[in-house]
Amino acid sequence: YSAKAERNTYRIYTPRMSDQARERLKLENDMRRALEENQFYLVYQPLVDLHSGNVTGVEALLRWEHPERGVVPPHLFIPIAEETGLINEIGEWVIRTACAQNKAWQDAGLPPFIVSVNLSMRQFHQHDLADRIRAILDETGLEPRWVGLEITESMTADVEFAYETLRKLKEVGVQISLDDFGTGYSSLSYLKRYPIDKLKIDRSFVADLDRDGNDAAIVSTIAAMARHLNMRVTAEGVESEEQLRFLRAELCEEAQGFYYTRPVTADAFVKWYHEHRQDQEACSER
Ligand code: C2E
Ligand code: MG
Ligand code: MG
Ligand code: MG
Questions:
Q1: For the packed helices 213-228 and 241-249, what is the interaxial angle rounded to 10 degrees?
Q2: Choice from 82, 118, 208, 247 to test ligand 1 binding pocket (greatest atom count within 8 A of CB)
Q3: Which of 66, 77, 235, 275 is deepest in the core (most CB within 10 A)?
């Protein structure tokens, strides 16, 4: 770059920055109102056991129906919620709503499965997180073993703190998954010490399984490692039959992805669930 080009870039960039800052501030203010005005909702995506075909769980994913912008995806608003601290309140709403929904599914006669929610860094650092979750379980009547919490490798950077926090959460009786596994920097020597029940292989490794030998090697290795550490393993972002075949051959236990369904509303999930069961029965009769 020449100095002139740099100056030009700078001049163009500044007003855009302040536009962005204005945008951000507006989103932030809108978000403060969103909880009260019921603009948040959850969508659910199933996790399927690759051996039996059974649904072992669903992941709850947050959506914001903004009055002017329409549906805002989480990567656009969760970082802001995290910075402003609003994430604690929103996150608690997510846990309560997901637990109440899972209890309602059980009461309606669906075979029980786990509902997982994603925790943010700030939530993970709430000193009374375990108590809050216990209170939500009491309130909704859901047994702790039907709840999963997804954390990321970045949350385990402070080893002692992570260990203590996870221990308290395990005391409540919920399941712990390490999400987006392989993209962070978690140390293998600590991984074995943490009370983690499941590794979720990041979808970036799954995406190019058919074309990229390195990704295939990474997926196989994570699956084998999880087995040796007595953890379950889920592949995220499965979109094709070929990926599924590979994962089965590598003894990966579970898969989640558009191959089965995109994340959908609670009602649409129940409809999908019954169709999935029918497909399975049709397969086993053949
Ligand atoms: P995540 O926890 O790794 O969730 C999986 C993401 O992958 C979801 O994106 C899902 O829609 C997407 N996905 C699932 N299957 C496929 C597939 O086959 N192909 C592709 N291309 N994508 C697939 P989503 O819903 O946009 O969420 C993005 C991230 O936002 C989540 O990643 C999670 O880190 C965060 N997030 C979502 N809901 C919450 C929440 O309630 N609280 C917190 N703290 N974070 C959340
Ligand atoms: Mg997740
Ligand atoms: Mg993930
Ligand atoms: Mg991911």
A1: 40
A2: 118
A3: 235
Reported pTM: 0.93
- Determine if ligand 1 sits within 6 Å of the CB of residue 118: yes
The tens digit of pLDDT for each residue in 205-256 reads 999 998 999 999 999 999 999 999 999 999 999 999 999 999 999 999 999 9
Amino acid (1-letter code) at residue 77: F
Q: What is the pLDDT of residue 1?
A: 38
